Amino acid sequence: MQSTRSTSLQDTFATLTRWAGNAIRALNPRPVLPAAPRPWDGTGICTAVIRGGGTAHTATAALAYTSPDGTEHLKLFRGHSTYGTPGHAAAAARIDALAFILNNPTDARATRLFIDDPALRHEVTAFQDSFPSLQLTTTADTHLSTIASRTAARANSVTIHTSASVALLTLHQPTNERRLVIATDASIIPGQAGAGISAVASDGTVWQDRLSGTADITWAEMKAIHAAITQHPGHHELLVLSDSKAAIAFANGTAIPTQARMRRLAAQIGALRADRAIEITWVRSHNGHALNEAADALARHARHSVAPATLAA
């Protein structure tokens, strides 16, 4: 006779399996995994760890991996769930991380992979035969696991902070405000290439990116303004907030940039505003404005983490 404990464990396992399967099938758009493995032309082993977490709407998975030559890498993947269905955002982020490592970025002979979500790990075994060089493990490399856990936690704390800020703004936004309010920001370290940019809207939309080849803060601020408009197409009115007076002047056409690329970008912003009611105005930074504070946090985070980074030993 089967014990109650054994039956309970089987029921739990079956529930987790169903959750992972449903989450993967319900993702929209569904992440596309490679149909067949790339040729394994390397000679070494890649060790990788995927860990993640987040909210019902937005989640981040961190992929930390060591290439055969010993170089450590880190990459973040963000998942979204429009309707806030539990588990969908987290599953999307982890699946994107899995698809990346399955594409064999290090040309390794084999990849030893740990996925922190046991249900997804179980689901992956269903197609593991298609990737003979993928070796799933139930124990994670301690060093990589620490890096991935801490990075995912930092990234998701930014997400939670942003969601709270957007909620706060919504509570205090006048009911007769018809415009969508979007705060933008950029972040650099003076003298170092690489800028993080972001846009956070009053409807809860969050966007971020990293410009790897620039140390020009005004250029980055203009790129954030441009992105805020292009990420919200249509005919509804926009109020774009920036804490960069120079970028605002260039975007509004009240000043002419000396750099050709800035003039081109200003012209593109002007073209986007031709048939729409879009106001671009200044907001004081670090003055308690919820969206500005959220955009600042996301821009600083993007500067460090959106693009792949080499980790310190």
Describe what this molecule looks like in 3D.
With 313 residues, this protein is of the alpha/beta class. The protein has helices spanning 4-26, 88-102, 118-124, 142-172, 217-230, 245-252, 260-272, 290-305, and strands at residues 45-54, 58-66, 72-80, 110-115, 134-136, 180-187, 195-201, 206-211, 238-242, 278-282, 309-310. The strands form two sheets. It has a six-stranded mixed β-sheet with strand order 5-4-1-2-3-11, with helices on both faces. Strand 4 (110-115), helix 3 and strand 5 form a beta-alpha-beta unit. Helix 1 (4-26) crosses helix 3 and helix 4 (142-172) runs antiparallel to helix 8 (290-305). 42% of the residues are buried.
The largest β sheet comes out as: 6 strands, mixed
Helix count, per DSSP?
8
Shape annotation: elongated
Low-confidence stretches: 24-42, 306-313
Average pLDDT number: 79
Order of helices and strands: HEEEHEHEHEEEHEHHEHE
Spatial separation of the terminal alpha carbons = 53 Å
Q: Number of DSSP strands?
A: 11
Report the structural category: alpha/beta
Strand content: 15-25%
What is the spatial order of strands in the main beta sheet? 5-4-1-2-3-11
Radius of gyration: 22 Å
The helix content, as a percent range, equals 40-55%
Which key features would you list for this structure?
elongated; alpha/beta; 6-stranded mixed beta sheet; 41% helix
Topology:
Blueprint (H helix, E strand, L loop, with lengths): L3 H23 L18 E10 L3 E9 L5 E9 L7 H15 L7 E6 L2 H7 L9 E3 L5 H31 L7 E8 L7 E7 L4 E6 L5 H14 L7 E5 L2 H8 L7 H13 L5 E5 L7 H16 L3 E2 L3
Helix pairs in contact: 1-2, 1-3, 4-8, 5-6, 5-7
